[in-house]
Amino acid sequence: MSFFSSLSEMIGISGKDSESGPKEDVKKETTVGETSGEFAEFSAFDLILTNQFADFNIDYLNPTPTQTIVPIAIRKMDAIAPPLSIYSWNLESNVWTKLLDAAGSCHSAVVIHPEKVVILGGIRDNACLDTVTTFILKQSALETQLDVPMKIARTRTAATFFKNILTVVGGWAKHKYLTSMEIYDDKNRVWYACAEMNKPRANAQLIAFEDTLYVFGGYSGREYEAEFERYDEAANKWIVEGKMAEPTAGFAACAFDEYIVLAGGWNNGNNTLNTIWAYAPKRKLWCKPFGSLEKPRKSFSMIVTEINGEETMCAIGG
């Protein structure tokens, strides 16, 4: 039995990850730029229906009971704007309401889980942070919970829930790019060190897809990382799975249908991308079935949710 499976049984959790795997009704692949519908002119965040990204309008009004928590990250510290804001989103009326400005650090990892947002690490006053803060949505308000600090203080790290266990990899700390991995035992409130990645990575993305964990992209301190890795749970080992279509850091990612979707980011330190690449793990294939983002974005969030009965990707902030 793997370490994750043992820990899942020990702390009494079960079920699929919040980032879902492929659905039975897989959308047809299309060429870049091909559309299957018309979209109105909107602003503020990208919405994908079928195969085309378009902007969508935001109204800042009072929330109603049907909500999804969405974080909007701001990359740099600013005297006026906080580095992270958390909103509630009413899916039925497309109404957004700001719940909290989580000021005090930047370059933190942000993980969205049903009805909560977890913020990990970051940097403040030139010092890397080991802090873990969970914001839980309760009746249109946020309850703040300070969790046990990570074993290693880190910024620009990647995090997700894998088999409902909070998992962190990579980042930067003490002038070093990291390969380390940690997982959190929520019941006993303790972090465990796991397998080291093969490559150090900051500003990478960690994605759970069909009970498998992948890490993509990032910057190693010398180059933008082209290889991506798969976690072998039984052996507690990271394996180089292949090469990305385009080495990138600071992008957003999500699992959608049969794909792991990577969008935006940068690849030379001076640019911001609007490209969208999709990786099909079962076919080991890179493709472009979703066109491009309407606007170039980096350090933003992507979620998958159901809108009008259809599973939908949303790219937010940046």
From TrEMBL:
It comes from the Eukaryota. SUPFAM superfamilies: Kelch motif. Residues 16-31 have a biased composition (Basic and acidic residues). Residues 13-32 are annotated as: Disordered. InterPro entries: Kelch-typ_b-propeller, Kelch_1. Keywords: Kelch repeat. Coiled coil: none annotated. Pfam families: Kelch_KLHDC2_KLHL20_DRC7. This is Kelch repeat protein. It comes from Diploscapter pachys.
